[in-house]
Amino acid sequence: MHCEMILDEYRERQPIYNKIKDIVLDRLRSTLRDNNMVVTAIEGRVKTEHSLAGKLELKGSKYHTIDDITDIVGVRIITFFSDEVDKIAAMVERMFDIDWDNSVDKRKMLAIDRFGYMSLHYICRIPTSIYHDPEQPLLNELRFELQMRTALQHVWANMQHDTGYKSEVEIPMEYQRSLNRLAGILELADEQFSRIRKEINDYRRNVQSLVATGNFDEVPLNGDTFRSYCDLRPFQRLAEKIATINQAELYEDSPMPYYNILLRLGMKTIGDIERMRAECSDGAYQLALIQLAGTGLDIVAYSVALQNLCIVKILKLGYGTVGLTGMFSAIYGESAYNAQRAERIYQQALRSGLVLNDHHPETETSAS
Predict the structure, then answer these.
(1) pLDDT digits (tens, 9 = 90+) for 2-13
(2) Is the pTM of this model over 0.85?
(3) Which CATH architecture has domain 2-165?
(4) If you ran DSSP here, which 8-state letter would residue 65 be given?
(5) pLDDT of residue 77
């Protein structure tokens, strides 16, 4: 009779439970989005009548009223990294009213001789500051459970469920030991992912600091460092100088496609790019004078500065039309037009004095 009364009240409240779930999911998603926080998933559910009946059958004496059951509405946030669980928890604490007496950090409840994956469980209420409907006061009175765990913790929890690891049936010791070993591997992986991410972020911050202070010879050339270097707009002056040839508008585009070209040219550090910029800027401008003369072009891409620097460098290294063709193929994709463009620019470079000897293209070394 006691359990039937709880089930009757559950049926009456079911629309309220569903609304609580929807409000919580909506606010969590919008808050995560506003804070630029990315998670693996946000899930929500209202316990089914069948599931609730099963729970009452097993533990009905534990609950005096339906309000004693705190997980009828359940929401779960799954993060990528273990350190993000605490960040999400701090966000949740600011959003909802937390019932600290019934909230549990199961991560701290593991026995010292046993590996395992647990979640951080908060029992919460929706504060009136987030949502309030005077006609539905239960929306702010009923509690819901919010679980926070990592993706690997989620995997482990599902494995526990599927293997019956948490059931009342005793599992033979050899299986228990195997499960504990597996849990230990997952726990170690979770820790290592967070550690590696922290070290990568520290490395990036250090590199950005070196780039910002101009210690370019100490900065190895890679995708991250080149992007940070480009943020300093090192080719702005040359690009503007080229644009003034035709009083053209400077069109903003990214120099990032030239990263692999720089590697092919033997650049090892950001300092190498700086030296190329110092050594080749005059030639890059002289080449632009010939390229733009009489064209009436009124829009010039920002990346033309770096392109012309690379062209001059390729010619100085003696790679000629073969090297130029390789560069254009890498930037624009394979096309018969790349060889024609390379030959035209090679002839322009000859006229500007950037190429001292007219080598036959077929005998030149390729930079590609």
Answers:
(1) 788 888 899 999
(2) no
(3) 2-Layer Sandwich (3.30)
(4) S
(5) 95
